[in-house]
Amino acid sequence: MSLALILFFVFGTIAVVGAILMIFVRQPIHSALALVLVMVSLAALYLLQGAEFIATVQVIVYAGAIMVLFVFVIMLLNAGNEERTNVSKLAKFAGLPLAVLMTIGLAVWIARASAVMASPSNTGVHGAVDPTRELSTLLFHDYLFPFEATSILVLIAIIGALVLAKRDS
Amino acid sequence: MTAVPVSYYLVLSAILFGLGVVAFVFKRNIITIFMAIELMLNAVNLAFVTFDRMHAGAPSLMGGAPATHDGWVFVFFVIVVAAAEAAVGLAIVITVVHNRQTLNVERMNLLKF
């Protein structure tokens, strides 16, 4: 068992346990902390796959900015214990089995198809080129128009959030 | 450090996505439902990074230059859209909670027939 495999299992277990905790914990703030745990372990998994810059962005933007926004709103709305109501019949008898079935089906299908999949080939091929430099070339050259489009999207989102959250006076 | 098979990562991604769906269906708090959506987006990002590792450096299907790290760019766009969605969504949550005085989605039934 190689070091990479051990690290994969450690961080994969942390991610799954964090996601399960997120479901079963009653306080929204605890759910948010469990989600931060999932995101940090996912960043470790990105590092393990050689995507250093993505891992950094994951920690800074997701675990840093987005989750702080969530925690802020939880504090602002004073969200306490979650009210436990009866689970609707549709969710109980159709939703849960379907979700479990979909997960198992996907997992089995992926495991069966893995024989056909090409083995990872980036070990030595891209050794000469710095992957982060290549990423910046892609982002600011090949994908320049989508990049500019996302900047407009973010601008619209900022204005929309301001307009929605503004108190009518 | 890239000895872990691709399928392991994809199975982990599927499990995380399934847990996100379960959380989305079973949670009653509107903020937690939003977090379930973020969890599903993260699972998809993991699949993107994994497929990128699988294909980067491999010969292009169309012939020509080898494929580059396009999967990472997709992850960036997903993160940007998730950030915008979180900002607008949480603003909507604040407005709704100010109007209805509850976080429980079962009480938000104004449009329910």
Overview of the molecule:
The complex is a heterodimer of chains A (169) and B (113). With 169 residues, chain A is mainly alpha-helical. Chain A has helices at 3-24, 28-48, 52-77, 89-113, 131-142, 144-165. Chain A is globular, with a radius of gyration of 21 Å. In chain A, 22% of the residues are buried. Mean pLDDT of chain A is 84; it is low at 121-126. Chain B is mainly α. Chain B contains three helices and no strands. Chain B has helices at residues 6-26, 30-55, 70-100. Classes of the chains: A mainly alpha (169), B mainly alpha (113).
Topology:
The complex is a heterodimer of chains A (169) and B (113).
Chain A: H1 3-24, H2 28-48, H3 52-77, H4 89-113, H5 131-142, H6 144-165
Chain B: H1 6-26, H2 30-55, H3 70-100
Low-confidence stretches of chain A: 121-126
What is the rounded distance between the termini of chain A?
64 Å
Could you give the count of β-strands of chain B? 0
Multimeric state of these chains?
Answer: heterodimer
Q: What is the CA-atom radius of gyration of chain B, in angstroms?
A: 19 Å
Average per-residue pLDDT of chain A, rounded, comes to 84
The count of DSSP E runs of length 2 or more, i.e. the number of strands of chain A, is: 0
Mean pLDDT of chain B: 85
SSE class of chain A = mainly alpha
What is the overall number of helices of chain A? Answer: 6
SS element count, helices of chain B: 3
Strand content of chain B: under 5%
Q: C-alpha Rg of chain A, in Å? A: 21 Å
Low-confidence stretches of chain B: none
Largest interface, Cβ cutoff 8 Å: A-B, 86 and 75 residues
Characterize the biggest β-sheet of chain B.
none
Helix-strand pattern of chain B: HHH
Largest sheet of chain A: none
Helix content of chain B: 55-70%
Order of helices and strands of chain A: HHHHHH
Tell me, briefly, the overall form of chain B: elongated
